[in-house]
Amino acid sequence: MNGVAFRLKNEFCSRQFAGFLVVGGSAAILNFFCRVFLSGYLSYAAAIVVAYLIAMVFAFVLGKCFVFQSRRSSRTAREFINFGLVNGLAVLQTLGISLLLAYVVLPYCGVSSHGEEIAHAVGIMVPAFTSYVGHKHFTFK
C-alpha cells in the first residue's frame, strides 16, 4: 500500500472517524429539519445558513465531548473559533451544492418534487470528509 493510501486508510478507517460520522449525522439531521422549519420564515439560502449555524453549535459540543476529547478546557474558546472557521468553509460547500442541485441540476434532470429537500440533504453530506480532516488537524489538534 503506498503512503497516500495508507494515510487515507488510517484517517478514515478509525473509531474517531466513526464517532465523527455519528455526531455529524446527528447534527445533519438537526440541520435538515431546522432548515425545513426555517424555510417557512426565510429564503431557502438564508434558511440553509441559519440551520447550519444551529447544527454547528450542537456538533461542536458533541464533537468536543465525544470525538476529539480535548484534555484542556482552557482551549475551548480557541477551538470554537477554529471550529467556526472550518465550518465556514463547509457551509459554503453545503450552500453551493444545495443551490446548484436545487435550481440547476435537479430541474434539468426533470425532478420537480422535493428538489430543495434532496439538494439540501446531498449538500449536508458532502463536507463530511473535509470537515473531519479540518477538525482533527486544526480545530482539536
From TrEMBL:
The keyword Lipid metabolism does not apply. The chain crosses the membrane at residues 17-38, 44-68, 80-106, 118-135. It is found in: Membrane. Pfam families: GtrA_DPMS_TM. Residues 20-140 form the GtrA/DPMS transmembrane domain. GO terms for biological process: polysaccharide biosynthetic process. It is a multi-pass membrane protein. One of its GO terms (cellular component) is plasma membrane. It comes from the Bacteria. InterPro entries: GtrA_CellWall_Glycosyl (IPR051401), GtrA_DPMS_TM (IPR007267). Keywords: Membrane, Transmembrane, Transmembrane helix. Belongs to the GtrA family. PANTHER family: PROPHAGE BACTOPRENOL-LINKED GLUCOSE TRANSLOCASE HOMOLOG. This is GtrA family protein. It comes from Syntrophobacter fumaroxidans (strain DSM 10017 / MPOB).
